[in-house]
Write a structure and sequence with these properties.
Elements (H helix, E strand, L loop, with lengths): L1 H23 L14 H11 L6 H36 L7 H19 L12 H20 L3 E2 L2 H6 L15 E3 L18 H7 L14 E14 L2 H57 L8 H28 L27 E15 L4 H4 L8 E9 L10 E3 L3 H24 L4 H38 L5 H34 L10 H14 L18 H7 L2 E5 L10 H6 L3 E5 L2 H17 L24
Antiparallel strand pairs: 1-3, 2-6, 3-4, 4-5, 7-8
Helix pairs in contact: 2-3, 2-13, 3-13, 3-17, 5-13, 11-12, 13-14
């Protein structure tokens, strides 16, 4: 009875320990930006203060820049709030757990029930129409743009390769082999020939091709940011397995080294005998040549090569000696950390009684976009549905564990245990079954083997169900709410990321204009120079260190926000022969330059844009053809 209480007590203690760690630990990498509500205000204050050089002009410039930065931040926040609301409204018709899916499921169920009562064949599941496929593809394209603006990137083949080694897991799940049932996912979501949207083709068209992973043909996986995750515990069984595995590998290497030594000794003896014979022959030839007054040629390059090979062999032997000494000390051999959760941690019998902290690199955010093949079971018979799942702080080695429709296979250790006990039972009762089948001992042995087989089958099934439940729990542990919550979260990340970059771009252009003493070609910068200025500030200014942007904030440049408000003036680059500028040429940023309008004029244009934004309920006043007023900027560029 008391033994049955051990598993739930152990799980309760583990849950309490995880709760205590979350309460006492620092904020995760995923929420580092969103957990600092004053980060934009800090950026505004620091950038504005940099213009105050103690003069009246500098003080006025700092005040104007702070006012302008607040206006731009508010405008971007309102616009992204409107985009989040628009994404949620469009996703309502695609949500597999939304109102439309539930209504559709009730209608389909009623039709099937009525057909069954009438004795008719139930109608087939509804098929996806071209209009529905186009609606889902348009939403996927809009979501892809927002994801790239938020700093997400598409997963690559390198990210997939990292999942082929070991699984980091948590305190309850370790190296559990899984099998992905790809037929359970509908590839029409990412297949252009079936009306889907392929994000990898969109990236290639934008000049940023990504090497496709294998899962790119069935779903889209977006990644953002990097960090580390850790788990703390004693890990008795895992440490014992790792120690046995290391001992087996060291033993195998020792046997391989001994076999290599047995082969190399006679080979080396034969090589030395041949070299001695060649040396004696050469000495005889030299003496004969001296007697005849002739000169021999220098030794061929092969002799020097053999000498070099001897030096290499000596170095290899020295390295092997060092490796054996390290193995004798209890540490892992070179290459032994690959494929191991413990990495290069020193393990010994004393380590079983010590609490350990294991760390692993992680993705700060992971978003999955996929479509189920069985829409009747998973999506309320909604054929054009789109499922979204957002996770945070996911170990890079565990990215494949988040994929939907994963099925757990038995771990090799338990599988070997079941096979071993079954083989021992068969070996022990084979003679009694063959010789004295209907004797008392034979029947008893037959009963024992049948009981052992049933017990093994039940344990196999129960263990697989347990690991499957642990996998599902692990998937939901770091999931961020529902699909609607994920859309709002992504829009908020995009707002913060683009606001930072827009303010940094404003600072670069304003500082350049002040250094040039006004407008003109000297006050203009290329988009690449603007981005480099922002990266330098984040890297060198200590006050901005916590506000660093993501490494890969793709999509359109943050300059398009300032350009839409009317704060920029575009000029032809030095390589341009004419003054005409096109959107295609400006997208690359290689042959155009940009400058800020004067701060006073920029404040007036920002106030004007803000008024028009309020009149239109948060929508961009120059976003459509019905604006009724010319956009206040110097060119027709639109990133």
């Amino acid at each position: 009875f008391y033994l049955t209480l051990l598993p739930p007590v152990r799980q309760a203690l583990a849950a309490l320990r995880r709760t205590a760690q979350r309460l006492t630990a620092a904020p995760s990498t995923a929420d580092a930006a969103l957990n600092q509500p004053n980060n934009i205000a800090t950026l505004q204050t620091v950038l504005s203060r940099s213009f105050d050089d103690g003069t009246a002009e500098g003080e006025a410039a700092a005040a104007q820049f702070e006012r302008l930065s607040r206006a731009v931040s508010t405008i971007i926040a309102v616009e992204y709030h409107g985009r989040a609301a628009e994404l949620q409204a469009r996703y309502e018709r695609l949500d597999p757990r939304g109102v439309h899916a539930q209504r559709n499921f009730r209608r389909e169920t009623a039709e099937r029930t009525a057909a069954t009562e009438r004795g008719e064949t139930p109608p087939p599941p509804p098929q996806r129409s071209a209009a529905q496929a186009a609606e889902a593809a348009a939403f996927s394209a809009a979501l892809h743009t927002t994801m790239r603006e938020a700093g997400f990137r598409l997963s690559s083949a390198r990210d997939e390769a990292l999942t082929k080694g070991y699984s980091f897991g948590d305190e309850a799940i370790w190296n559990v082999p899984v099998t992905m049932y790809w037929d359970a996912l509908d590839r029409s979501l990412v297949a252009p020939d079936e009306g889907g949207f392929d994000p990898y083709s969109a990236e290639a068209d934008a000049g940023e091709p990504v090497r496709r992973p294998l899962w790119a043909g069935h779903l889209s996986v977006y990644l953002r940011g990097e960090g580390t995750v850790e788990k703390r515990g004693y890990f008795f069984v895992a440490k014992a397995e790792e120690m046995l595995w290391r001992a087996a590998k060291r033993r195998a290497l020792a046997v391989a080294a001994a076999a290599e030594h047995l082969v190399n000794v006679p080979a080396g003896w034969l090589r030395s005998r041949a070299a001695n014979a060649a040396e004696r022959s050469r000495a005889m030839l030299e003496r004969a040549a001296l007697a005849l007054g002739l000169a021999l040629k220098q030794p061929p390059p092969a002799v020097a090569g053999e000498a070099a090979q001897a030096v290499v062999s000596e170095g290899t032997a020295a390295e092997w000696a060092k490796a054996k000494a390290k193995a004798a000390a209890g540490g892992p051999l070179a290459g032994e950390s690959a494929g191991s959760t413990f990495g290069s941690m020193q393990l010994g019998w004393y380590a079983l009684l010590e609490e350990s902290v294991l760390t692993a690199p992680s993705h700060a955010h992971v978003l999955l976009a996929f479509r189920h093949s069985d829409a009747a079971t998973h999506a309320g018979s909604l054929p054009h549905h789109l499922a979204l799942a957002l996770y945070r702080d996911v170990p890079k080695n565990d990215l494949d564990l988040l994929l939907p429709h994963q099925q757990v296979e038995m771990p090799p250790v338990q599988k070997a245990q079941f096979i071993l006990f079954g083989g021992l039972g068969v070996a022990a009762g084979w003679r009694l079954l063959v010789v004295d089948t209907f004797s008392y001992a034979g029947l008893l042995t037959l009963y024992a083997m049948a009981t052992l087989g049933m017990r093994t089958a039940v344990r196999w099934r129960a263990s697989k169900a347990l690991y499957q439940q642990l996998l599902v729990s692990y998937q939901s542990a770091n999931r961020l709410g529902s699909a609607d919550d994920a859309l709002l979260y992504v829009a908020r990340l995009a707002e913060v990321e683009q606001t930072k970059r827009a303010l940094l771009a404003m600072h670069a252009l304003t500082e350049r204009r002040r250094e040039a003493g006004g407008g003109g070609d000297e006050a203009a910068l290329s988009p690449a120079e603007v981005a480099a200025h922002g990266e330098r500030l984040l890297r060198e200014w200590s006050e901005l260190a916590p506000l660093s942007t993501t490494e890969d904030a793709g999509g359109p440049s943050a300059l398009h926000h300032l350009d839409r408000i009317g704060l920029l003036e575009w000029r032809a680059g030095p390589d341009r022969q004419d003054g005409a500028e096109t959107a295609g040429e400006s997208a690359s940023g290689a042959d155009v330059r940009v400058q800020m309008v004067p701060l006073g004029e920029a404040v007036r244009r920002g106030s004007r844009y803000w008024g028009r934004l309020l009149e239109r309920g948060g929508k961009s006043p120059w976003a459509g053809e019905a604006a009724g007023e010319e956009r206040p900027r110097s060119s027709g560029l639109d990133f």
